[in-house]
Design a protein that fits this description.
There is one protein chain. With 89 residues, the chain is α/β, with parallel strands linked by helices. The protein has one domain: Rossmann fold. It has helices at 16-19, 40-50, 67-85, and strands at residues 2-4, 24-28, 55-58. Strands 1-2-3 form a three-stranded parallel β-sheet, with no helix packed on it. α1 (16-19) links the parallel β1 (2-4) and β2. The longest helix has 19 residues, at 67-85. The protein is flat.
Length: 89
């Protein structure tokens, strides 16, 4: 699930059904938060009302915020899937 700190003008917050199936969501463009009206705590609160154990990863490609954490999560998830799909020896 992808959230952007500067949502499109024609869309508000995400809908619950969009987030309920995910364990991780990334909130992108966090480097812009000081320059826009976006309530990060409110966003997290709304998301966790739908999925209490949701991990919210804050990313900024410009500054590199959260990229190593995201990379680590992707590697772990890939390993988990490979192990789950591998036949027992």
């Amino acid at each position: 699930m992808l959230l952007i700190a500067v949502p499109p003008r024609n869309r508000g917050w995400f809908e619950g059904r969009e987030i309920a199936v995910f364990n991780l969501t990334s909130l992108n463009k966090v480097d812009l938060l000081p320059h826009v009206r976006f309530d990060l705590d409110r966003c997290k609160r709304y998301a966790r009302q739908v999925k209490p154990k949701l991990h919210i990863l804050q990313l900024s490609a410009t500054r590199g915020d959260g990229l190593s954490t995201w990379d680590q999560w992707l590697r772990e998830q890939t390993l988990v899937r490979v192990q789950a799909e591998s036949p027992p020896c």
